[in-house]
Design a protein that fits this description.
The protein is of the alpha/beta class. 33% of the residues lie in helices and 17% in strands. The protein has two domains: 172 residues, Rossmann fold (3-Layer(aba) Sandwich), CATH 3.40.50; 174 residues, Rossmann fold. The strands form two sheets. Strands 3-2-1-4-5-6-14-15 form an eight-stranded mixed β-sheet, sandwiched between helices. The chain has a seven-stranded mixed β-sheet with strand order 9-8-7-10-11-13-12, sandwiched between helices. It is elongated and about 60 Å long. 45% of the residues are buried. The chain binds nicotinamide-adenine-dinucleotide.
């Protein structure tokens, strides 16, 4: 199969859909790999790295789309790419169709086979191609939170680890899922006192089992949240209710109970955020202040660390790319139901209920 990897052109996206190691695997299986020149540069991969493993570099995005039977990407195609997607071409990437009717219509019109990373789902219900980005965001949440606690950028002026004779900072984590656990691990590693809240006792039991004693768990309730926001320096929003907007666990009114310079990091901003005062920000201008409380609400946190994020993403996508390339999409999706759940639009037809429901028949 001919596999094409275009350079990402969405604003602020520096990852790439395939590493040289992935290209090496595909070439070894006898496939042809076409990469757009400089596509890997921002992730630390030079054109020569791809050439050395047998990939062919193409000068333009048009050439990559024209050549490929399967396009492997990171983000959804943007408007200028819509006309490049060909009938019967496999496009394997994050699509998030429910957030864009224009994209959905364009992919229906293209006649392509659109397989979305975010709906590939194993039999236990986990989303293996989303997990690594939550891992990155969870770990970054503490790195960013620790930085924004510094006084010159309006934080409380607290060092999370403390020093001998001075107690450590206190980190409150709302949600003990993938993001929450990774955040707890990083905060604990810095020596902070960590409180983790969740409504799922299984998750709290897990955290309690695997974390050191300075990470404590409590059931998530309005009462407990109100109690802890008064004494914690850094608060991480990491809740998820699948398919729904995140609940507002901290209201605007509650900000007045916090100490000036407390830092809120709302990782759940991409689901609407779990603080009432959350609004999406960018890496260029990541924070804003309300009632002296610093808000960090970057919607694509992994984008700031493309080297790590590209490796983390391609570690999990490569086995599926190989299945698609070796078997073809029909055989691969029927043999591997987890991959089959990634099919969203097939040759002009929406094949997943969530998209049909989102647009409420408007696409018919
Ligand atoms: N901003 C970014 O760059 C970025 C990157 C990756 C993920 N995310 C987002 O981070 C969020 C968390 O992702 P995840 O992978 O950890 O999800 P997850 O499903 O693994 O964990 C979510 C947790 O929230 C808990 N929860 C639900 N309601 C709660 C409540 N009222 N109080 C406390 N806990 C509650 C659930 O029980 C679950 O344990 C999602 O919205 C995800 O989209 C954002």
């Amino acid at each position: 199969m001919k596999i094409g990897v275009p350079k990402e052109i969405k604003n602020n996206e520096s990852r790439v859909g395939l590493t040289p190691a992935g290209a090496f695997e595909l070439v070894n299986y006898g496939h042809e790999v076409y990469i757009q020149e400089t596509a890997g540069e921002s992730s630390g991969f030079a054109d020569i790295d791809y050439r050395e493993v047998g990939a062919v570099m193409l000068p333009t995005i048009e050439a990559v789309y024209a050549m490929a039977d399967m396009i492997v990407k990171v983000k959804e195609p943007i408007a200028s790419e819509y006309p490049l997607v060909k009938r019967n071409q496999i496009v394997f990437t994050y699509f998030h169709f429910a957030s864009s009717e224009a994209l959905t219509r364009a992919m229906i019109k293209s006649g392509a086979i659109c397989i979305a990373y975010e709906t590939v789902q194993d039999d236990e219900g986990t989303l293996p191609l989303l997990t690594p980005m939550s891992e990155v965001a969870g770990r970054m949440a503490i790195q960013q939170g620790a930085k924004h606690l510094e006084k010159p950028i309006k934080g409380r002026g607290v060092l999370l680890g403390g020093v001998p004779g001075v107690p450590p900072g206190r980190v409150l984590i709302l949600g003990a899922g993938v993001v929450g656990v990774q955040a707890a691990k990083m905060a604990a590693g810095l020596g902070a006192h960590v409180t983790v809240l969740d409504i799922n006792m299984k998750r709290l039991r897990y955290v309690n089992d695997v974390m050191p004693p300075h990470v404590v768990t409590e059931f998530s309730s309005v009462y407990n949240i109100k109690k802890h926001i008064k004494t914690h320096d850094l608060i991480i929003g990491a809740v998820l209710i699948p398919g729904a907007k995140a609940p507002n666990l901290i209201t605007r009114e509650m900000l007045k109970d916090m100490r000036a310079g407390t830092v809120l990091v709302d990782v759940a901003v991409d689901q609407g955020g779990c603080f009432e005062t959350t609004r999406p920000t960018t890496h260029e201008d990541p924070t804003y202040i309300i009632h002296d409380i610093v808000h960090y609400c970057v919607a694509n946190m992994p984008g700031a660390v493309p080297y790590t994020s590209t490796l983390a993403l391609t570690n999990v996508t490569l086995p599926y790319i190989l299945k698609l390339a070796n078997l073809g999409w029909e055989a691969a999706c029927s043999k591997y139901p987890d991959l089959g759940r990634g099919l969203n639009i097939v040759k002009g037809e929406v094949v997943i209920d969530e998209i049909k429901e989102t647009f409420d028949g408007a696409l018919v």
